[in-house]
Amino acid sequence: MIAYKITITGRVQGVSFRLSTKAVADQLGVKGFVKNQTDGSVYIEAEAEDIYMQEFLNWCKQGPDEALVQNIAIEAIEIKMHQNFNILKKAIH
To answer: Of 40, 27, 93, which is closest to residue 69 (Cα–Cα)?
Structure first.
């Protein structure tokens, strides 16, 4: 099991990025959450088995069809044992 915090910048808000991220995470068994940030980026905390995490990260580098990912920052974090994958509605600072 591995966990990352992922920050994605570019045209990533208003393009169903969070909803698409949840759908992909649910398909792959990735747990955690996704939320929009006030700076226009998308923030994700994700944990999964390594093989599924790699597929998830590959998807994050592209995002949904309408998105234009310019940068993705990935940093390993402590596993928090999330029970599912959620979309958070409000940015938390």
So the answer is: 40
